[in-house]
């Protein structure tokens, strides 16, 4: 292995990082929520357009420093979405071949984004994307990045400009610099793990903050948090791209989460229409899921007469989802009715109480002891509101 090449590769990534400004933190003061500002950390402004830019940078640095990523060896990832786009960007920066293993059903638009940065798309007919990526890496003598295993450990959760440290630095000059809730969704679970650990690590400043993770319909993360089981599995794939998983991934760390909310997909997509009205721009589906959780918690604070910021993420822009989240035919084909949820959000933003068409599944607070696999179903019963 060429130590000189590794040092040069790390220097290139660090130089690229210094050329990039931090992402914006947008403040929304909604009249119906006096004293409860909503902050949106806009991760869509990264060079590759999503939150996954941070993860890809961390995974490359982690692989380089572990000696796994080497000169003239290809990098392989199991991803059809934003992670593959961002990893293709960094592979091109280092002059490395990059192959994204993905289902045959992946849209042409996403493949084109990966190809734009010089990446290759390797499709498989069934669900065994990760196993095929692992096989391909072995056959080519390359490195399987394996985002779902390494997302929670590749990022330095104690700081070094991770997303949590960036958030608190930007909030430092605000009237109330300590958010009551940080709301994120989980794909690998790595972002939630980083933020949850940082909240505890910097507890002397952030003792007022709790972490809420929102989960879409077709995902096992909520039930894993509620029951403490890591062996859960479902056959359905999440309709909210980038978040929700059919298995409990290694990077999902429930012990650092204070609360989880399961958000219906119709609510996530309806929220995108509300966000577009508030911001004048479109966002991706996971941002809609985040917004539903944030709005739920803001109404709860308001009902209790409490004040303080709520913070969530804009994960990526809506231009990647014109054929799904913003396509009426796709929405109808999945049997999703957005109208009742859109009406709810508009009422809540005018000061009405939280009265959703379908109650959200919620778990946390009193269920803090449920993270042990030995916890009983009785102790971990779901909270419905």
From TrEMBL:
Enzyme class: lyase
Cofactor: pyridoxal 5'-phosphate
Annotated Gene Ontology cellular component terms: cytoplasm
Keywords: Cytoplasm, Lyase, Pyridoxal phosphate, Transferase
Associated pathway: Amino-acid biosynthesis; L-cysteine biosynthesis; L-cysteine from L-serine: step 2/2
SUPFAM superfamilies tied to this protein: Tryptophan synthase beta subunit-like PLP-dependent enzymes
Compartment(s) where it occurs, according to its Swiss-Prot or TrEMBL record: Cytoplasm
Residue span, Tryptophan synthase beta chain-like PALP domain: 22-316
Pfam families: PALP
Reactions catalysed: O-acetyl-L-serine + hydrogen sulfide = L-cysteine + acetate; L-cysteine + H2O = hydrogen sulfide + pyruvate + NH4(+) + H(+)
Keyword Transferase: yes
Taxonomy, superkingdom: Bacteria
GO biological process: L-cysteine catabolic process to pyruvate
The enzyme's E.C. designation: 4.4.1.1
N6-(pyridoxal phosphate)lysine sites (modified residues): 52
Family: Belongs to the cysteine synthase/cystathionine beta-synthase family. Cds1 subfamily.
PANTHER family: CYSTATHIONINE BETA-SYNTHASE (PTHR10314)
Protein task: A cysteine desulfhydrase that generates hydrogen sulfide, H(2)S. The H(2)S produced by this enzyme stimulates respiration in M.tuberculosis, mediated primarily via cytochrome bd with a lesser contribution from cytochrome bc1/aa3. H(2)S modulates the balance between respiration and glycolysis, and also contributes to redox homeostasis. Probably eliminates toxic levels of Cys (which can induce oxidative stress). A cysteine desulfhydrase that generates hydrogen sulfide, H(2)S. The H(2)S produced by this enzyme may modulate central metabolism.
The protein, known as: L-cysteine desulfhydrase Cds1
Record organism: Rehaibacterium terrae
